[in-house]
Design brief:
alpha+beta, Rieske Iron-sulfur Protein, 343 residues, single chain, 2 domains
Length: 343
């Protein structure tokens, strides 16, 4: 039939076998040739790029200033809808330009002015003291390569932008609530203060609160405050509910804090301060919509689900001579988040 040995896979050359057809080792092609940028060869282009970077940092500074103009020039207590819209625009644009100016400026600086040579470095044996010296030299080389020492325009505008840029965030976080201390221990509630509906300010009689009903309540006089109305409301707002007195389980000393099954609890969640606004009258549960913390009204608003760490503070109430619901005192514990004021 003939000799087919030359056509077999092992002899035809279609399959490589060990030791057969040793190929040349792969050659390292090396780094591609460096292509200088316009700013590397043209002093005018370099100067122009430097001014562009500085301009971007100045835009960041202007953005921060715009933020503070909107933040401090418009007061929420007496602002109109148009003024609030203007404030939102100023805050948004100011923050955007403050962050964008720094980010784009640094990227433009790196792409046009910082050295762009590609280098490779062999790994070496770790020697702590030698590595420390090498690291210090590397940091020094990086600072030198950025050119920040010999480019005062960029350096000064960058420092100005970086100093001002975090200030809007500080202002916004500061406005989230009162500072730590005793500020959350005291509210507008005091002995004899009537419970009134929010926002109308209408006083509430015990007979107005039917079984299963719930009212959003503020202290009488809050709407008449000339200033700091929102801050006081954030601390003093209350949820008023009526349950069957047999469903309540007051702890010793709290037996007279309710009126015929009518109880009042702080509306401010003890997790991060969101308003607890959902009342489920069948289960007598209060739900915070932010993180689903759930409080059981029958057990003095004990936390039964969610991240809240403490029950909602209870406001002791009673009825005055005219039949209106009034506070017996202020809350006997701090309201709101429990970050700093509860042991």
């Amino acid at each position: 039939m003939g000799d087919h040995s030359h056509g077999s896979p092992n002899t035809s050359g279609t399959v490589a076998t060990a030791g057969q057809g040793d190929e040349e080792k792969f050659q390292n092609p090396g780094l591609p040739p460096h292509r200088p940028r316009l700013a590397d060869t043209n002093p005018r282009a370099e100067k122009r790029a430097e001014r562009q970077v500085a301009l971007l940092f100045v835009i960041s500074i202007i953005g921060t200033i715009v933020f503070f103009i909107g933040y401090f020039s418009i007061h929420l207590d007496d602002a109109s809808i148009a003024e609030l819209r203007l404030q939102n625009i100023l805050l948004g644009l100011g923050t955007a330009f403050a962050m964008l100016g720094i980010g784009v400026g640094i990227v433009h600086w790196a792409k046009t002015l910082m050295p762009d040579h590609e280098i490779t470095e062999e790994r070496h044996e770790i020697r702590p003291e030698e590595d420390r010296v090498i690291a210090e030299k590397m940091v020094g080389d990086i600072i030198e390569e950025t050119g920040i020492k010999r480019r005062p325009l960029i350096r000064n505008t960058l420092l100005g932008a970086m100093v001002l840029a975090p200030l809007p965030a500080i202002a916004v976080f500061r406005d989230l609530g009162p500072l730590p201390g005793d500020t959350l221990r005291h509210t507008m509630w005091k002995k004899g203060t009537r419970l009134v509906r929010d926002p109308s300010g209408t006083p509430i009689k015990a007979s107005d609160v039917t079984l299963g009903s719930a009212f959003h309540v503020i202290p009488n006089g809050l709407n008449d405050l000339p200033e700091h109305k929102l801050e006081e409301k954030a601390k003093a707002v209350v949820l008023l509910m009526r349950l069957n007195p047999e469903d309540l389980n007051p702890s010793p000393g709290r037996e007279n804090w309710a009126v015929d099954g009518i109880v009042a609890y702080s509306k401010i969640c003890t997790h991060v301060g969101c308003p607890v606004a959902l009342y489920e009258q069948q289960t007598h549960h209060l739900l915070c919509p932010c993180h689903q913390s759930t409080f059981d009204v029958t057990q003095e608003c004990k936390v039964i689900f969610g991240p809240a760490g403490h029950p909602l503070p209870q406001l002791p109430i009673e009825v005055d001579s005219e039949g209106y619901l009034v506070a017996q005192s202020d809350f006997l514990e701090p309201v709101g988040p429990s970050y700093w004021e509860r042991g």
